[in-house]
Specification:
The protein has a six-stranded mixed β-sheet, sandwiched between helices. The chain has a single domain, classed as Rossmann fold, CATH 3.40.50.1460. β4 and β5 form a beta hairpin. It is built from five helices and 13 strands. With 262 residues, it is of the alpha/beta class.
Length: 262
């Protein structure tokens, strides 16, 4: 199974009012999760991290997904952005030089792909301040919580589930059109931190209820997204409402996995 993760971040300029330090916490949390057994047991060579990249660099990484015949990919953007009423899509601000990229480009030539867009979606005012709620704490999100998890077995069943799924693109968006995406300097973006927190809770729950000597369990991205939505809404005072785009499958088991325990 050829897999690839691309994580793109842009926290803004250090010292500026709209600098979002939590973006880098998101990066740490996502990488820790992905390299754990239940996150798919990704190796360093399967993860690309781009901080404030040029538009050309992002496009180069996207083209490599096709060139290298990557079967399954996860693309994460954490940082500044806004919603374009012209393209009806999210626009990402990639760096301090003003490079922009339309989020629709992340869907090009996708076979099996999960896209996570953790940015504001205001049509005109895309920036937010860093003076946000800091009371939520989820430190050490994805250290191995139980030694019973077998990373190699997790990777095997994670890849098996991906192979069984039909080709699809799933997009998780941090907020609705016209809203801002909350950021905490201590825990990261509201959406990303809640996604990973709810995943951790499901893994821990599964470790109690599932006999891993004879079974395994996977959790789809839409399932985890739905669990995270009310938490994000609560943390933001109902000012941030995550959205999802996915195929209209009649069978929920067809959706791509986000986590696995084995």
């Amino acid at each position: 199974m050829k897999r690839r993760v691309i994580i793109i971040t842009n926290a803004g300029k250090v010292g500026s009012e709209n600098y979002c330090q939590g973006v880098y916490k998101d990066k740490e949390n996502y990488i820790s999760f992905l390299k754990s057994g239940y996150g798919g047991y990704y190796s360093d060579s399967e993860i690309r991290y781009l901080d404030k990249p040029s538009r050309e660099k992002v496009r180069e990484e996207l083209s490599l997904l096709t060139k290298n015949e990557i079967e399954f990919s996860i693309i994460v953007f954490c940082g500044h952005g806004w919603y374009s009423t012209m393209s009806e899509s999210n626009i990402f601000e990639l760096n301090d030089n003003g490079d922009l990229i339309d989020s629709l480009e992340l869907r090009t030539n996708a076979k099996k792909r999960i896209i996570i867009e953790d940015n504001c979606r205001e049509p005109y005012s895309e920036y937010i301040t860093d003076n946000l709620i800091k009371s939520f704490s989820a430190g050490g999100l994805f250290e191995e919580y139980h030694k019973r998890i077998n990373p190699e077995e997790c990777k095997k069943y994670y890849n098996k589930k991906i192979s069984e799924c039909p080709e699809q693109v799933i997009i998780g968006q941090a907020c609705s059109i016209g809203e801002t995406a909350g950021d905490s300097s201590s825990t990261g973006g509201y959406y990303s931190s809640c996604l990973l927190k709810k995943t951790k809770e499901m893994v821990e729950s599964g470790l109690i209820t599932i006999d891993l000597s004879s079974n395994y369990s996977t959790y789809s991205f839409p399932f985890i997204h739905n669990l995270a939505v009310p938490v994000v809404q609560k943390r933001s005072g109902n000012k941030q409402n995550p959205q999802i785009e996915k195929p209209r499958y009649s069978v929920s088991d067809n959706y791509l996995p986000f986590a696995v325990i084995a």
